[in-house]
Amino acid sequence: MRKTLCFYFQIHQPVRLRRYRFFDIGKRHDYFDEYVNRSTIRRVAEKCYLPMNRLIMDIIKHYGENFKVSFSISGSALEQFALHTPEVIESFQELAKTGCVEFLAETYPHSLASLSSTDEFELQVKRHVERMEELFGQKPVTLRNSSLIYSDQIGERVAAMGFEAMLTDGAKHVLGWKSPNFLYTNAANPKLKLLLKNSRLSDDLSMRFGERGWNEWPITADKYARWLNESAAESEIVNLFMNYETFGENQSAETGIFEFMRSLPEYIFSMTDFEFLTPKEVVKKHQPVAPLHVPYPISWSDEEKDITGWLGNELQTEAFEELFKIQPRVRALNDQALDKDYWRLQSSDHFYYMRTKLFSDNDFHRYVSPYETPYEAFINYMNVLSDVILRVEDMEKKRILVDEKDTDKEESPVKSKKTTRTPQKKSAESSAKTSKKVDDKEKKVKSKH
């Protein structure tokens, strides 16, 4: 039986916040930096999305259905493409028509909702599936959670939602002696199949490709094909999972990354017995070898492969808890503008900007943050969230008044109007207290690192 090579690319762009100060709370609701968002999307589209999509289309035209890849594109990225670079969506639609590309489901805003106890995770995945059908004519059967976050419990939820497969990382502390180059199942529900990232071979491209000080530099297509052969000598599958921005953005065109990718299929076909398959095809072809027990969430981030990049300190935990505390109230109001802002605030990037742990991944993520410090990121985010909470309280107050007026009309036209007491607006006060506490938290968190 031929061995399998599975290429998967993540595409995500957060909607970035503008500088939102304490004195803006309660006065303005324009939270997002439209200039930075527009310029970022256009830059990355020109450097990565458009040229790489053209390259993949050229390879598909040359090799036909022998070459296949898969993508997951966050809803926040799609919204910004529609606003600023609609040609990017069109290029993905052209790829979809080839039948050689699988589009995966994920949380619509690339969120951490799977780590909350709310129903937000299911709502966001459902909306993302609908968007994939609308744009690309595919109903995803494979799910990729934000940054490959996974646990037994999350996998059980995903299986209950009807998905056939899920992607995650081949974390060493979970695998132990086992290899990531096989198909596994969820420990609680074996119907859900698990594809695991081969971290070394994936990161050779996404992290180390242009690193001239690396003892394996430069990576050539024939050298990489040999590595693939060696990695799969006694296994079945090699899953290469990475950010799409690897091509042209994180690894610039000057590194030769595009030429490498263009020539790679030729060496794969001539030097190995691999075939390219998408995740849903991997699941159909291969049999799982064992359940994978993952009691605590893992991800593809940092050396630890856990969730501490997003929820590793008190700042992140407080922001996360306050965000999801209001979820039932936001959903009950069913206001389109509020829902949109609330989803945008759920992007995992906002929490990653607050990280205080030592940088790893070759400082790969350091330049991504628009803030000077994690504490600045926290204050800015909490100011915005405080205003959202005030909006929720105000809308609830108005709804109560409307309901009481309707009730009064139904019960008695001459009935005196009740006086409604509304909750005090604690959000601004909370934000002020948060600002005062942040210095103490900074000292406390720093002492741990």
Number of helices: 17
Number of strands: 10
The residue fraction in helices comes out at: 40-55%
The major β-sheet equals: 5 strands, parallel
Structural class: alpha/beta
Q: What's the Cα radius of gyration?
A: 24 Å
**Beta-strand content bin:** 5-15%
Cα-to-Cα separation, first versus last residue:
49 Å
User: What's the helix-strand series?
Assistant: EHEHHEHEHEHEEHHEHEHEHHHHHHH
Instruction: List unreliable stretches of 5+ residues.
Output: 360-366, 414-428
Shape: globular
Q: What is the mean predicted local confidence, pLDDT?
A: 91
Description:
The protein is α/β, with parallel strands linked by helices and 449 residues long. The chain is built from 17 helices and ten strands. The protein has helices at 34-63, 75-84, 86-97, 120-136, 152-160, 172-175, 199-206, 221-231, 257-271, 279-285, 308-311, 314-325, 327-333, 336-345, 348-352, 374-411, 426-447, and strands at residues 3-11, 69-73, 101-103, 142-144, 165-169, 184-186, 193-197, 237-243, 274-276, 290-292. Strands 1, 2, 3, 8 and 9 form a five-stranded parallel β-sheet that branches. It has a five-stranded mixed β-sheet with strand order 4-5-7-6-10. The radius of gyration is 24 Å and the shape is globular. The N and C termini lie far apart (49 Å). Residues 360-366 and 414-428 have low confidence and may be disordered.
Architecture blueprint of SSEs:
Layout: E1 3-11, H1 34-63, E2 69-73, H2 75-84, H3 86-97, E3 101-103, H4 120-136, E4 142-144, H5 152-160, E5 165-169, H6 172-175, E6 184-186, E7 193-197, H7 199-206, H8 221-231, E8 237-243, H9 257-271, E9 274-276, H10 279-285, E10 290-292, H11 308-311, H12 314-325, H13 327-333, H14 336-345, H15 348-352, H16 374-411, H17 426-447
Parallel strand pairs: 1-2, 1-8, 1-9, 2-3, 4-5, 5-7, 6-10
Antiparallel strand pairs: 6-7
Helix pairs in contact: 1-2, 1-3, 1-9, 2-3, 8-9, 12-16, 14-16, 16-17
